[in-house]
UniProtKB/TrEMBL annotation:
SUPFAM superfamilies: Metallo-dependent hydrolases. It comes from the Eukaryota. It comes from Suillus discolor. GO terms for molecular function: hydrolase activity, acting on ester bonds. This is Metallo-dependent hydrolase. Pfam families: TatD_DNase.
Length: 360
């Protein structure tokens, strides 16, 4: 799993002045924030911007399936784009979404806000998707939804004011869940006891409000399992985002929580990660089939099998992931699920599950 490249506080201050929607201000600086993925060594050569628009899908049945990305970070994705392509042709998040997802059959995205303090830019973005007319004109017909919570790395900054901001966001008509939240013992950017306390505090509010849960868990199986089972009803809707822990852990959660689903990102395509492939294979053999959701966690984790479709950039790597890459994740996932699952079958099942969990 990759290290998350998030915009540093200087850029977040710019975002609070709404530069994500207005073209006159450009991003100028980035930094690494360890929000949860190990870095892979990358080529210094960045492919031309046009390659981000992606080639046509070889499998027409994949292209026919609508894309629903259940976990993406739009602000980080757009910020990464602006920093990697200083002369880029897209100047707002709306420009980016309309252009990158044009003719890609993207139906819906679930945007994730997980910072502390809460970035007030969330409201401007969410409000821009309130009406069908706005979604058509500004978003190219794509349904924009969001979730909000505090990532375990930010748990040390969680306080009453942060919580009040999240509770305010929960009432917004485009909000479909609470998260991402949870435990991360790989980096321990916040003390573990604080991570646990903040996780429980958020869970209690989300359960009280009936909001679906977007869960981040890494190398914290025992505590994540214990806390979820103590504080969350067995029928609550849960998305275990970007799953990479043990298949045994996943199976215990799936058995206990009947509305729990496993998030699959491009990390399934990485040779360093076998756990995700193994749990997909196990779920595919179960009576109900794979309880999965497809997600990008953009801008992180470009699916490695995508490069087979772009031989022109052999030896270099795209600097960011985005929602239109979902079909490559589905295609690879189908290979791990085995016969009779196709990439189109995986996308169809994941879309059905997204409706169950988030109503999108």
């Amino acid at each position: 799993m990759l290290t998350r490249n998030h915009v540093i506080r200087t850029s977040w201050q710019l975002l609070r002045r709404s530069v994500l929607l207005h073209p006159q201000v450009h991003f100028t600086t980035t930094a690494h924030r360890t929000m949860g993925k190990n870095n892979k060594k990358k080529s210094n050569t960045i492919p031309a911007e046009d390659f981000l628009r992606l080639p046509p899908l070889a499998d027409a049945s994949l292209a026919d399936q609508p894309i629903i990305d259940t976990h993406t970070h739009l602000v980080s994705t757009f910020s990464t784009y602006r920093n990697k392509y200083r002369n880029g042709t897209l100047y707002t998040i709306h420009d980016f979404v309309r252009e990158m997802y044009r003719n890609r059959n993207v139906r819906a995205i679930v945007d994730v806000w997980c910072e502390a303090p809460v970035l007030m830019a969330w409201r401007e973005l969410a409000d821009s998707a309130l009406t069908a007319e706005d979604r058509e004109q500004k978003w190219g017909g794509i349904d924009y939804w969001f979730v909000m919570g505090v990532h375990p790395h930010e748990a040390k900054s969680y306080n009453d004011a942060v919580e009040a901001s999240i509770l305010e966001a929960m009432a917004h008509p485009r909000c479909v869940g609470w998260g991402e939240m949870g435990l991360d013992y790989h980096y321990d950017n916040s003390p573990r006891e604080i991570q646990q306390a903040v996780f429980i505090r958020q869970l209690n509010h989300a359960v009280r409000l009936g909001k679906p849960l977007t869960i981040h868990t890494r190398e914290a199986e025992a505590d994540t399992e214990r806390i979820l089972m103590e504080h969350v009803p067995a029928d609550h809707k849960i998305h275990i985002h970007c799953f990479t822990d043990s298949p045994e852990f996943a199976q215990r959660l799936l058995h206990h929580f009947r509305n729990l689903y496993i998030g699959i990102t491009g990390v399934i395509t990485y040779s360093t990660n076998l756990n995700t492939s193994n749990i997909v294979s196990q779920m595919a053999k179960s009576d109900g089939g794979p309880r999965i959701l497809l997600e990008t966690d953009a801008p992180f984790m470009v699916p490695s099998n995508l490069y087979n479709s772009i031989p022109e950039i052999k030896g270099s790597r795209l600097p960011l992931c985005h929602t239109a890459m979902i079909p490559w994740v589905a295609e690879y996932t189908a290979g791990k699920a085995g016969h009779p699952w196709s990439g189109a079958d995986i996308m169809k099942r994941a879309n059905e599950n997204a409706k169950i969990v988030y109503g999108v």
